[in-house]
Amino acid sequence: MNSASPFESPAESPIGDPMGGADTVIPRPVLITTAEGCFVLRHDTVIASDPAFEHAVRWLRGALGPAMRLTLLPGPRGPGTIQLVRAADLAEEAYRLQVTSGAVRIEAGGPAGAFYGAQTLRQLLPPEAFRAGPLGHGPWSVPAVTIADAPRFAWRGVLIDVARRFLPKNDLLRYIDLLAMHKLNVLHLHLTDDQGWRLEIKRFPRLTEVGAWRRESNVGAAVHEKYDGRPHGGYYTQDDIREIVAYAADRFITVVPEIDMPGHTQAAIAAYPELGNLDESLPVGTSWGVIDNVLNVEDHTIAFFKAVLDEVLELFPGDYVCIGGDEVPKEQWRDSPAAKERMRELGLRDEDELQSWFVRQFTEYLIACGRRPYGWDEILEGGLPRGTTVASWRGTFGAVTAARLGHDVVTCPFTEVYLDFRQSGDPAEPVPIGSIISLESVYGFEPVPSELTEEESRHILGAQANIWTEHIDSVRHLDYMAFPRLAAFAEVVWGPRRRDFADFRRRLRSHERRLEALGVEFRPESGPRPW
Ligand code: TNX
């Protein structure tokens, strides 16, 4: 900060801009009009709020209070206050934000809208405000502005693969805050896979006693090939999950759990060999890719996973539960007398129909439990019960097929929004996996496939960016892969269809300062950052 001038008490010169400014918000608000002047936020500024918007108020107090030394106590509405007001003409997630020299006024349709208004307000402050502290005493200046804002899509999601690489609880909570900052509202947690089972299930303790830990193997293989050669493990207890779910809910984020079946299950089979097709015990998977070891189709296996889902449903109150369904090699079923018997009994022609039958056991179970099943686009093969939502990852084919059949869809094509893929062709990028998905191409992603009619496209709930972690071995690396592409993605799912990348880049300069202040180790636009 500048040294204090003898003529001007520092307490009287509001601290504003340096690299912030009214029109630097990400995701960009739908309508934004800047004006002259500013609101001065003082240490004793009060908040007058509709009682229904207590979440937003609590969050503002927590985010700004300690670092900026603001008390933000409740007080009567009047000049010089921050006001949160309900507006009957606005949708649940919509808000208007008006900053004048006299007041900050957030009008919102519901608690989520008020929360998003509060998030935008924070971004109007100088990027410094994103530090945990210590910051100056203020007063702080908020530039005058009029904003009207609402999301384009209801599903603004991110998948984090905590199965391949366990993300400790506190790191996950930090990510939830980062998602909230970008007005994202779904966290899809990929909790189980061949290489790890990360969710405590009381009825089957070996799932985490055995399935959460993998040993080193193939030591010596190059890190960017099939194996990483390192032991690894960790899992969330049920108390951890309750905390994560509540923390997310406080920030209007729904956690969608995924129990991937019947493929991507070697960790479960390692814990309970009777779930598999072979008469041998298997280790928790140590190689990446699609693995032949899938679940068997016997009654006890179906019952086992229904019992797993019972505990999942207790922990995750959201509507959607993902049952995976992706990448299921059928070789072991072809060789299995039990699978052949099942097919005979049900009159199924091939193993694809068997997979469809398997998936249906769980989609129907979830529907009977009052939930909405969600799965990767392979679950379309063989037909799906109504009320099932499809995650379309293999191009747009799944999205188009599902929408035409009347299923809701979340689009996440691997060619566009897989944030585990590298960000440029520069050899200095960390572990160069996948094709190049640049910031600009993420920004250009359109969630609604062009083949769909307007009527059909109502089934596109939104999109999600998927962060698989086979090759992301630390939180630093996760930050690097996620940001700033997730900021671009947030604008795709929040903002209007027509977007301007040059304008996004301009605002990104301020946003990078915000991320820096938060300690996010994003990839700079200028090129790879060596660690
Ligand atoms: C495909 S997308 C997978 C994941 C991998 C990912 C790597 C999907 C449903 N399955 O198991 O982690 O590719 O990019």
Q: Over all CA atoms, what is the radius of gyration? A: 25 Å
Helix content: 25-40%
Strand order of the largest sheet: 7-8-13-14-15-16-17-18
Report strand %.
15-25%
Low-confidence parts: 1-11, 218-224
Reported by name, the CATH topology of the largest domain is TIM Barrel
**Count of all domains:** 2
Would you count the extended β strands for me?
Answer: 18
CATH superfamily of the largest domain: Glycosidases
CATH-defined architecture of the largest domain:
Alpha-Beta Barrel
Mean of residue pLDDT values: 93
Q: Name the structural class.
A: alpha/beta
Tally the helices. Answer: 17
The small molecules bound here are: ligand TNX
Distance between the termini: 29 Å
Give your account of this protein's structure.
It comes from Nonomuraea africana. Keywords: Glycosidase, Hydrolase. With 531 residues, the protein is of the alpha/beta class. It folds into two domains: 11-149, 2-Layer Sandwich (Chitobiase, domain 2), CATH 3.30.379.10; 155-498, TIM Barrel. Helices cover 32% and strands 17% of the residues. The protein has helices at residues 54-68, 111-124, 169-181, 206-209, 238-250, 266-271, 299-315, 331-334, 337-346, 351-368, 397-404, 414-417, 439-443, 454-457, 475-482, 485-494, 501-518; strands spanning 31-41, 47-49, 82-86, 95-99, 104-108, 140-149, 155-161, 186-190, 192-193, 196-197, 213-214, 232-233, 254-261, 320-324, 372-376, 389-392, 409-411, 460-467. An eight-stranded parallel beta barrel has the order 7-8-13-14-15-16-17-18, surrounded by six helices. Helix 3 packs parallel to helix 5 (238-250). The longest helix has 18 residues, at 351-368. It is elongated and about 80 Å long. The structure holds ligand TNX. Residues 161, 326-327, 376, 393, 418, 420, 468, 470 line the site of ligand TNX.
